[in-house]
Design brief:
- By secondary structure, the protein is α/β, with parallel strands linked by helices.
- Strands 7-8-6-5-4-3-2-1-9 form a nine-stranded mixed beta sheet, with helices on both faces. A three-stranded antiparallel beta sheet has the order 10-11-12.
- Helix 7 links the parallel strand 5 and strand 6.
- Helix 1 packs parallel to helix 2, helix 1 crosses helix 11 and helix 12 packs antiparallel against helix 13.
- The protein starts with 14 loop residues before the first strand and ends with a helix.
- The N terminus is likely disordered.
- It binds S-adenosylmethionine (SAM) and iron/sulfur cluster.
- Iron/sulfur cluster binds next to loops.
Length: 391
């Protein structure tokens, strides 16, 4: 990874709003996101009213913010009517100031039905889409339980290109039987379709998913550590060569085209989480609150209708917890972390002895500007590096 040079000048003021739409047409067998399938139609107007109440209640706790990014995630936000998205953007604008250069992203599944709504989203105020393409091979898409073909996904990407100033798409690699050669060819093809941003995730077996059961039964074999490492190296090499270096462990962008909303999380700035199962980090009276809402959509709805919000967890983080989170999130970034900011948050510096050991092992390095960052060979063992530094 190369990095350390993402402009971060005004990011200290960054304030993001995450809105979670928790419904999907079907549940993908690898997915453990808070997503639910409903056979009856969803009353979107009723959800809009509940979302608007939660936005208002949140804004009362953190008034006066200027919203720099908004992200509609899911679930499948592209199942929302454009009018629903417009109403939610209006509700946000009624309670906070919207920055003139606000980034408004919507996650979309790349089916033809959803692509038909793209223009409506644009009119509503969305200026960036992130498409869940996942694979460019029909066999792999089927195995992943996706409802779209590669052709359909590429058509949706082509529509996104004409409608939005900015778009990204996601691919899942390290899939069963995937060779570095096959992945290299698929990735190169994807890059010809990408503009400025790609999210590339290694397939993870999440607990309590159908894939976890198949994996445990030996019916789903994923690449072992060495093979996954070769796929990772292929990914970094091809993307960097194409001008899309990783700026985060799974995210690649041209310089200046990073997803600003996700940078809010990774730089541990402040954000509000709205909707079922959303998480937020709010700074109230000098303390950082970790907030989470009820996950079940209908239970969240009833809670929001009676209490004006669906919050079920609101914890003030200790100094140590804030510092650990800063390390955990910040070391995912190619730019790394400022050790002085860590020391201010934790009330003590990082252990120089541990840094020296990790440096000797080639897992971390100090940049010329004094940032501590994980190296290319450290990224595949990021969890261990963070655990070592945080201990
Ligand atoms: C919230 S999800 C999905 C957004 C959208 N509903 C979709 O499926 O296209 C965001 C991304 O996480 C990735 N993802 C989800 N589960 C994963 C897993 N088990 N392993 C790797 N990537 C995963 C997928 O690439 C997905 O597009
Ligand atoms: S991967 Fe996306 S479409 Fe599939 S279940 Fe998860 S959130 Fe829904």
């Amino acid at each position: 990874m190369s990095g350390a040079d993402i402009p971060s000048g005004d990011e200290a003021q960054a304030f993001g709003v995450y809105v979670h739409w928790p419904f999907c047409l079907s549940k993908c067998p690898y997915c453990d996101f808070n997503s639910h399938v409903r056979h009856a139609a969803i009353d979107q107007d009723r959800f809009v009213r509940a979302f608007a109440s939660e936005i208002a209640a949140t804004a009362e706790r953190v008034p006066g913010r200027t919203v720099s990014t908004i992200f509609f995630g899911g679930g499948t936000p592209s199942l929302m009517e454009p009018a629903t998205v417009g109403a939610l953007l209006d509700a946000i604008a009624r309670r906070w100031t919207i920055a003139p250069d606000v980034e408004v992203t919507l996650e979309a599944n790349p089916t033809s039905v959803e692509a038909e709504r793209f223009r409506g989203y644009r009119t509503a105020g969305v200026n960036r889409v992130s498409l869940g393409v996942q694979a460019l091979e029909d066999g792999a898409l089927k195995e992943l339980g996706r409802l779209h073909t590669a052709r359909e996904a590429l058509d949706a990407v082509a529509i996104a290109r004409t409608v939005f100033e900015r778009y990204s798409f996601d691919l899942i690699y390290a899939r069963p039987r995937q060779t570095p050669q096959a992945w290299a060819a698929e990735l190169k093809r994807a890059i010809t379709e990408a503009a400025e941003h790609l999210s590339l995730y290694q397939l993870t077996i999440e607990q309590d998913t159908p894939f976890a059961a198949l994996h445990a039964a030996g019916k789903l074999v994923i690449p072992d550590e060495d093979h996954a490492r070769a796929l990772w190296d292929t990914t970094q090499e091809i993307c960097a060569g194409a001008g899309l270096p990783a700026y985060e462990i799974s995210n690649h962008a041209r310089r200046g085209a990073e997803c600003r909303h996700n940078l809010v999380y990774w730089r541990t700035h402040e954000y509000a989480g709205i909707g079922p199962g959303a998480h937020g980090r709010l700074d109230i009276d000098g303390e950082r609150h970790a907030i989470a809402t009820e996950k079940r959509p209908e239970a969240w709805l009833m809670r929001a209708e009676s209490l004006r919000h669906g919050v079920v967890t609101d914890e003030v983080l200790t100094r140590g917890e804030v510092a650990d989170e800063f390390l955990l999130m910040g070391l995912r970034l190619a730019e790394g972390i400022d050790p002085e900011r860590y020391a201010r948050l934790a009330g003590r510096p990082l252990d120089p002895h541990r840094i020296a050991i990790l440096r000797d092992e080639g897992a971390v390095e100090m940049t010329a500007t004094g940032m501590l960052r994980v190296t290319q060979s450290g990224f595949p063992i990021l969890d261990a590096v963070v655990a070592d530094l945080a201990a």
